[in-house]
Design goal:
The chain is α/β, with parallel strands linked by helices and 236 residues long. The chain has a single domain, classed as Rossmann fold. Helices cover 36% and strands 19% of the residues. The chain is built from 8 helices and 11 strands. The chain has helices spanning 24-31, 85-95, 106-113, 157-171, 173-182, 196-199, 201-210, 212-229, and strands spanning 8-13, 36-42, 47-50, 54-57, 60-61, 71-74, 100-104, 121-122, 138-139, 144-147, 150-153. The strands form 3 sheets. Strands 5-2-1-6-7-11-10 form a 7-stranded mixed beta sheet, sandwiched between helices. A two-stranded antiparallel ribbon has the order 3-4. It has a two-stranded parallel ribbon with strand order 8-9. Strand 3 and strand 4 (54-57) form a beta hairpin. Helix 1 (24-31) packs parallel to helix 4 and helix 4 (157-171) packs antiparallel against helix 5. The longest helix has 18 residues, at 212-229. The chain is globular and about 50 Å long. It starts with 7 loop residues before the first strand and ends in a 7-residue tail after the last helix.
Length: 236
Amino acid sequence: MTSERRDLEIAILVCPGYMPVDIIGFHTAFGFQPGVNLHLVWKNRDEIIGMPHFPTRATTTFEDCPADLDVLYAGAVPAEVFEDEEVLAFLADRGSRAGWVAGVCAGSLLLGAAGLLLGHRATTNFQLHGQLAHYGAVPTRGNVVEDRNRITAGPATGSFEIGLRLLQAFFGDEVARNAELMMEYAPRPLFGVGTPELAGPERTEQLLATTADMSAVYAKVAERAAQRLGVRVDPA
């Protein structure tokens, strides 16, 4: 006797200023699979401009998004979204029941702002990694960090890597292997400086300096989030 597998329900947050690079690999991994309902979710279906300039639209509003999700997924978004009560309420509600809660780059911090990383190991992009503690997460280095049903990653390639890992979780090793081959996912970076360790301290410090203003905005949001969530952060 066999039982039919129900369709998976997956919600991917989009919003003005979101980073398409953080969701496209995940969307591709699951978009080619049968029996998967992918929802690009936002407050409405008006045109959205991602960063850098990338016009798109949500397919599903918060109100119409299924209540019980197999995956709730977020990539990087502007800092002001971290304090949008409607966004946080949506994430907290769906994330409380989702089979998996996934974040890439600053999307990990956004999940934390919704209270979804309290007590979980997590990672994000290196410029913001130190802010994870403000959201009650346990900052952990790694391309992909998995803790129970929370899975987080750094930017860009993390989208593919989480996608392949969750394909494995839902469909098994062979489906995930075939997806990796179909996407020819075998990164060979041109310069080999894609992490602070590979880039070295001088180049890393230069990049940190160029992104300091952006990091400072997120830091202020993180400090307010810690107060709201009742998280005590020990001074560095």
